[in-house]
Design goal:
Layout: E1 7-13, E2 17-22, H1 56-73, E3 79-82, H2 94-108, E4 113-118, H3 126-134, E5 137-141, H4 147-153, H5 162-169, E6 177-182, E7 184-185, E8 188-189, H6 193-206, E9 210-215, H7 230-236, H8 238-242, E10 247-250
Parallel strand pairs: 2-3, 3-4, 4-5, 5-6, 6-9, 9-10
Antiparallel strand pairs: 1-2, 7-8
Helix pairs in contact: 1-2, 2-3
Amino acid sequence: MMREEIVFGPIFSRRLGSSLGINLLPEKGKICNFDCIYCECGWNKDGRGDTRLPSAADLEAALEAKLVSCKEAGTAIDSITFSGDGEPTLNPDFPEIIDITLRLRDTYYPAAKVSVLTNATMLHKKDVTEALKKVDNPILKLDAATDALVARINQPQGRYSVREVVENMKQFGGDFVLQTMFLKAPGFDSSAPEQLQAWMDIVRELRPREVMVYTIARETPASNLEKFTEEQMRALVAPLVEEGFTIQIKG
């Protein structure tokens, strides 16, 4: 499901409510350093027809126009959400764009949250991390606890280390949302005891303010993927809930 605009929606998000989306990737393409087997935007290879990234000026014009029209129409916006067709922090203007977005949010929709969905691979860049610290909801992805399973699910396009990503997440001091996809695929099962235990140990190490656990909701590029029910996921994360972690579960 590729977005064709820099700013789209608002759409209803099962996690964030009325969400105005921001796509910092090409309007008619996909750029990501992951190639997740469950990505609703499809495979990277199918999104290479357009490689132009929107600039900070492009974003400012599009976002202000959309916020003005939404305000005039009385449209509710709960979250201004960076998602789009790939990894938003790959846009070189990302830090400047965050500052612009926060200023426009404060002007037109001061009660709205600014949320960024990111795979956390760019946290080694100080300007990216500092920008993410400014937003209300830095939502950092970690789908598996080992490099081998990340390679199976997320298919990183380049070097990736779970341990390095976890260490980089510690820069937030727990003030972030950890997002994890639960699914079953050939050779992988989020509910397998050794996988689940290792993931929960990382949650305990990071102590994020919230954990967002979700499962497949739309068509996926890979076949043979199975989703979990909310009841199953609730049972799987019950030990963390009992320990006092705030966990949002979305089927």
